[in-house]
Amino acid sequence: MSQVISQFARRAGRQAPPRPQTRRPRPVLRRLLVTAASSLTAAASLAAGPSTAYASPVTAAPAATQVTRPVAHHSGDHLTVTVRNAGRGRDGTFQLSCHPGGGSHPDPEGACAAVERNTRWGQDAFAPAGRGGVCTMQYGGPATARVTGVWAGRPVDARYDRRDGCAIARWDRMVPLLPDLGAPASP
Predict the structure, then answer these.
(1) Distance between alpha carbon 91 and the CA centroid of its chain, in Å?
(2) Can you give the pTM of this predicted structure?
(3) How far apart are CA 64 and CA 53, in angstroms?
(4) 9-13, 41-45, 83-87, 109-113 — which is least confidently predicted?
(5) Most CB atoms closer than 10 Å: which of 1, 73, 79, 153?
(6) Which residues of 91-123 are buried (b: 16+ CB within 10 A; e: fewer)?
(7) What Cα–Cα distance (Å) separates residue 61 from each residue in 49, 58, 67?
(8) Contact 129, 135 (CB under 8 A)
(9) How far is Cα 147 from Cα 137, in angstroms, rounded to an integer?
(10) Of 157, 57, 74, 162, which is closest to residue 112 (Cα–Cα)?
(11) Each residue of 34-44: pLDDT tens digit?
(12) Angle (nearest 5°) at CA 160 between 156 and 161
């Protein structure tokens, strides 16, 4: 811009105004530095968190100081699974306890393993399929399921159906917590 002003000033027979001696920092560079610093701070705080897949409870030591102890399993993992319209032998309400596996669920150990397999740090194992994804337009049947309870210390209230390819894949990831609808129903 100053070169353009200088050219017009020379043509008019005048001298161009002097350029300022101090340079201001560029806003883009400042924004970049602030973003980099905040990103490093966020990354450092994430790296300082626990490395287990579960929150660790805080227990009081005899000296009244707080000690954090990582726990691999929560004894409070308890789920209620209600399945409807899946066919005879598959419908019903089942109780499931994990660590150790038990309850009225037909396969408690397998069901607990399915949920464990889908549990990731910072993610909801029972989260619905993301919006905006590309799903096949196939219908997997009228079966529905609802899972409630507590898993990894967090409340669970999830609904499952088989309305399209994404919902079918979400259901199938939780087999045998949810019934395998690819196998024939028992009479």
Answers:
(1) 29
(2) 0.58
(3) 27
(4) 41-45
(5) 79
(6) eeebebbbeebebebebbeebbebbbebeeeee
(7) 21, 9, 6
(8) yes
(9) 25
(10) 74
(11) 565 555 554 44
(12) 170
